[in-house]
């Protein structure tokens, strides 16, 4: 076994403790520091029995030669300076989603990491759930057939955030999943967003994103901070099978339906009038595959180690974080313009 | 007890048998005829033990002086001529949703009925479910507070129709419910629609409607013919309580959550920076009220009798059918224009 | 097509209307009479548009030469005289469950039908649901492996009956299903029953039946009139697969789990101490087969026609009704004796 | 704040890590030692960043004057010697359920703790869930009315244990909950057990316990290692309300139904024949109270601290552990005797 990678976690707020726990649990890493402006908070996160060092001084962390990598879980607005400092200190960087506060800032990070040959990874945690890994496999291998629609609902009573609306808070999950599971040939080409601020919070608390995909399919995302019922369900409709992922049903998270609508191919079609009899139902079985119950963060941490060690891009590398930012930014523009469909222009960095 | 109203059902296809059964079961009506171009089909619907008369000739029905009212369950494209003929013959008219194939046709029906002082009612069946009646009561009485959002999902494997897309097939249910439960002061003012035709059926099989309401709230409808899982869930988010109606959960169709997000009123707010601490959760109880399990069609039939007898408009009268048609038509235009938000202009007939 | 079998339904109470509707819907039968001591009730059941004859006089029905068969849905206490009269009049007989009020009465019916070569069938409706037909097929074909346990829960707010306790009211369903799905080689050999009369109704309102099966497996039935939640779930645990039938989940009534516990065969076992490592999990997929949604009563009616026409015993013939009665009677004895395990003695008539 | 209580956890197997985590998280305790015969296993449990001491030598732990209390999570067969040694060393003792391997052994522990004036507590974790605490409150305060029945199902694919059957493995949860929620005046008076060993494991893998309560009510427990579906549902039927606890439904763990069956009081009853009309339904609302989501073990740890500090018995003290053992032992006897109802004799130590 090789020497573990020295790692520091920056940020001891909501997400930091999860990173601390998982890096401590991974033999590939050795956690050196937990860094937070509020040192007491960092101490509380580690608890009273820990040998991990605590500091409020990022420079102290970055100056430590035993630290080869950092994991940043600070507010999005600080991702650029913190990550840039780390990259410039020669450290590999993992950033909590979203990659940065704007597309432009995200691009700076990607370019800096490229320039220095360092790993830049975005912690799109959901991509590493056993369910999403399976969806990716089924969709990219063609087992579901061609994608027709993807519908994602992520609603709950959520903390109304000071800086960001519900789109920037929750949709990164769905957008990163979409980016992760789509076959390479299929890409989002436009997005429209509708939202409402029912409670006078000054920002959208309920929002709907509609994405046009390059193959003519549609993806739709419902994010909502005001729902007393919690729903996290994604339907992936394919030409062969349709998959339903219910993240709140541990005994049956993924269900694959061999049911659907069959349409005769165009050349078989006589005339328009007979169309209705050429559409028929398949009423097939449903299979709920056995999935492992591995914690997604553990798999994400492994992937970070793999990317650092191999020098290859992580599955959710900086570029994937950038693609998500581009859509978020376009969605914000659409929201401001009352729902206009905004074209995406992925060309620039891909 | 007064003499029952003589009624004829026109159309023995998908919906006609339900009307036949419910008019037969109602003491307020006496079913005289079942009329269908396919007499054999009409006979099959009645079964081998019935005393009800069958005919393919609408004129024969309309000429029968014992028939005071008709119920029309023919394809939408025929609603205008059939209903017009019935009104001109002096019969009260109930029409299956949608009221007509176009807003213009619907308007002709409303005007004709007005002119003749006859009842024109639209069979918006869902409005007569115990659940929707309760939602109407709770929302209009203010028990839920002001409406923030309404989210409706109606998806299933559905028959891909020859003439109409999924919006015209399924959204009339949700739009009529919305029309029914909204307080009088709150009205839809604009609609945008996005859709996709994944299977090459020549019309949208998946669609999303977003409605702006006059109080700033949002209503959203997801209709889908391609989903192997059946979902019929509506969330009604109010400022005081949020209600979830799950039509597929007979043991708990309606759940009212006294949970939510509290925002301090603007005058209490110091500065923007403290906003996040001024939003707090209420984590209250949920109540699932005991609802009767009465068949909606039975209640609808009673309402038809009440409207005929009293001369008052039915709860779902021709005008409500017209309001639904206006939104459907605007949604179609939005769909054709790639999702533009289309203003509604309710003024003309209300 | 052959001439339909003339049939009369006797009893227009709770169950009779379902029989009326299904015999009317079947081309194999021609419904001649609905007979009930309360003629008005019978008229209400048929409704105001029916050509079927009504009478309070069973003799009039039995004297009608166009009646070849009867279906009896009167209280259990009257099954013996009504069915006996019908058999003696040369009519085939279908009896609502339970076959009779006692085992001895049921035996008289079986013997009378045997003597006269007439069909005697028990309306064990649940046996004809698509789910139970599938369970029977899977269990008898060996696809589930050897039966280890069967656990059935049938609870709801139920009408507290005047004459019978919850065991006689509800357990016939579960016992007839058990009788129906078991492989021929496996039979119940003993039963114990525990119950309670929480509400002072004078009879058990909650009861648990435990059956020992001839292969060492266990079957357990929970019936309950006092539960505000409705549960109808049966788990069939086999050595290869385990099946769960949730009758209240229309989208997934039957689920077959390829999960379980593997035990090494005895000869492979070293010593007792290593047993714990010889038991391992299989964490396989779950399959929910597509089932038709045919009404069970329709299939039951078809089976009645098949039995009458072919002269072969119905799948749920008098003997199966008798086996259920034997267990019910033994359960009552066990209940009275505080839960003693009562041996069953199936030999006498099988 | 007072000085934290020095604590040692003994046993680093399945349950030990949970105790370690919760004692570390509690300000009332200071974790001094983790003791396990397998020191490497103990080290793995603590992880590579811990300051807690590890040892295989119980005597070393008991000799440490900074240790005032121990928590024992070793196999049940070792509870007696380990706990006895700890008590004799003057330490307070918390024991994982069951209290001991036999009633006799459990009694020795209770007596030893009594003699020395030390706290002896049994870790009946489920009793400290917010749901069970609420059930206790509702049942003991009379809000549910008098108890009619309690039905508990705890089934899942479970590890077939080497030493114990499914009754000893799982039923302690249900029996301790029963003991915890019952009003003082209502006690189990007899128990019968039925079981089966479908897979040839040499011990019952499926079992049903029926308990007679002193007020005539019935309690029933289904425990099962062979079920591929996981169910953890308890129904508490009272004369006023019925409560359903579904531990696997985080959004609605407890539901209280104001529905039920009303029976007229005996004096109002005319004669037996009219009984059926004197039983009527109440079809009231259901309320799902908002429960906190506090980890049960955290509350249990607090209660241990409270008991030690105050010198008062813990809510789940040694005596409650003993009452559970008495029932387990009687259930085993019943199982061996084929289901005989075994009288309980609570008198001896209560």
UniProtKB/TrEMBL annotation, chains A, B, C, D:
Domain Gfo/Idh/MocA-like oxidoreductase N-terminal intervals: 6-124
InterPro entries per record: Gfo/Idh/MocA-like_OxRdtase_N (IPR000683), Gfo/Idh/MocA_Oxidoreductases (IPR051450), GFO_IDH_MocA-like_dom (IPR055170), NAD(P)-bd_dom_sf (IPR036291)
Limits of the GFO/IDH/MocA-like oxidoreductase domain: 133-237
Offer an example of a GO molecular function term for this protein: nucleotide binding
Q: List the SUPFAM superfamilies hit by this protein, alphabetically.
A: Glyceraldehyde-3-phosphate dehydrogenase-like, C-terminal domain, NAD(P)-binding Rossmann-fold domains
Q: Which PANTHER family match?
A: BILIVERDIN REDUCTASE A, GFO_IDH_MOCA-LIKE OXIDOREDUCTASE N-TERMINAL DOMAIN-CONTAINING PROTEIN
Q: What is this protein called?
A: Predicted dehydrogenase
């Amino acid at each position: 076994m090789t020497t573990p990678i020295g790692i520091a976690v920056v940020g001891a707020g909501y997400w930091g403790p999860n990173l601390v726990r998982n890096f401590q649990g991974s033999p590939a890493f050795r956690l050196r520091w937990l860094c937070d402006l509020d040192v007491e908070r960092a101490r509380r996160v580690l608890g009273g029995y820990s040998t991990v060092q605590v500091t409020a001084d990022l420079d102290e962390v970055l100056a430590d030669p035993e630290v080869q990598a950092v994991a940043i879980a600070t507010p999005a607005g600080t991702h650029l300076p913190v990550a840039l400092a780390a990259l410039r200190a020669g450290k590999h960087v993992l950033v909590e989603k979203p990659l940065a506060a704007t597309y432009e800032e995200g691009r700076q990070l990607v370019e800096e990491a490229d320039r220095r040959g360092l790993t830049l990874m975005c912690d799109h945690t959901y991509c590493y759930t056993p369910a999403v890994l399976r969806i990716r496999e089924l969709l990219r291998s063609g087992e579901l057939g061609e994608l027709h629609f993807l519908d994602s609902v992520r609603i709950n009573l959520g903390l109304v955030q000071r800086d960001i609306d519900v789109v920037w808070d929750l949709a990164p999950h769905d957008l990163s999943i979409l980016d992760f599971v789509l076959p390479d040939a299929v890409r989002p080409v436009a997005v429209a967003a509708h939202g409402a601020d029912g409670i006078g919070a000054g920002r959208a608390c309920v929002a709907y994103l509609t994405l046009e995909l390059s193959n003519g399919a549609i993806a739709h995302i419902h994010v909502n901070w005001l729902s007393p019922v919690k729903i996290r369900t994604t339907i992936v409709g394919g030409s062969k099978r349709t998959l339903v992922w219910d993240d709140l049903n541990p005994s049956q998270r993924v269900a694959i339906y061999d049911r659907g609508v069959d349409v005769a191919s165009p050349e078989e079609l006589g005339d328009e009038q007979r169309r209705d009899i050429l559409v028929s139902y398949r009423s097939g079985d449903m299979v709920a595959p056995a999935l492992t119950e591995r914690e997604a963060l553990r798999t994400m941490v492994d992937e970070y180690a793999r990317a650092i060690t191999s020098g290859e891009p992580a599955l959710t590398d900086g570029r994937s974080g950038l693609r998500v930012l581009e859509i978020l930014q376009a969605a914000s523009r659409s929201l401001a313009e009352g729902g206009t469909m905004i074209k995406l222009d992925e060309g620039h960095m891909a």
